[in-house]
Each structure stands twice: as structure tokens, then as C-alpha cells.
Amino acid sequence: MVPFHALSQRLAQTALQGGRLGKASIYYFHNCQTKYLYHDQTRQKAEPVTDFLAQLRPERSAVLIFSDGGAARGGFTLERLELTQKFLDQLKQRSRYIAWLNPMATERWFGTTAGEIARFVPMFEVSRQGFDGAIDVLQGRGINAQLRQ
Asked: Which of the pair, 11 or 120, is modelled with greater confidence?
């Protein structure tokens, strides 16, 4: 996702400084959220996924994932899908609302791991409409928020 670093940094900065989110934290991962999430883009400061999940408050937590989910390379990887689905299942137990923001256009998801991931979590492309949809989900509004149940 190197081409999207500037966008991801701006999104993180906005989440931390510009919203009425209360406590917000930023985590990084490479391909799959398996054993560790990282506090920095270089993935030097690790936190076990179990610790991350344990700190979430199910009645208040909302999670936005920003990732192409494999759509940038246009491939499908069963292992990536299974690991991501496992993480999302764990996350759904600890977070009230989850949305996925994908920097690739929706038409690029077909036949990729991202297209399959979108079956498990509300996924939106980076566009004004996509941002609005993700925010609606994170605030518990709209039909897309019901996908997680």
C-alpha cells in the first residue's frame, strides 16, 4: 500500500485530531492482522492482537480498517482471506461497529481477496460516498451497519 501512505497518514491524523471520537488509536499491519498489530508504519513497536482486542469496550468501540485487502495487486489468497476472517470474527466480539475503507475502486475488488472480505464487513472505496458510508456504519446508522450481525 505504499502508493497510499500519504492518504493513510492524513486519515490517521484526521481521526486523532479532527473528530469527536474520544480516544482514538492507530495501528498498522502487513497483509493480515495475525499475531501482532503495530503502533508505527515501520512495524517496530508491536502489540499482540490479543492485547488490542482485550482493551476494546464492546459497547463503545468502533473500528475503521484502511487497507486494499489485496485489490491493489488484483490477486486472491485463500490464506489471507481465512486469517482476515478470523481476525474480523474476533473483532466483532469486541467492537460495536466495524467498517473497512479500501483505497481501490470497487470494480477492482472483483476476484480478489478484498472482494471476499467485503462479504464479511462493510467495505467502502475511498470516495466522498465511501467516506460517508463508512462514517454511517461507525456511527451505527444505515443498513450497512447490520452486516456485522
From this structure: 120
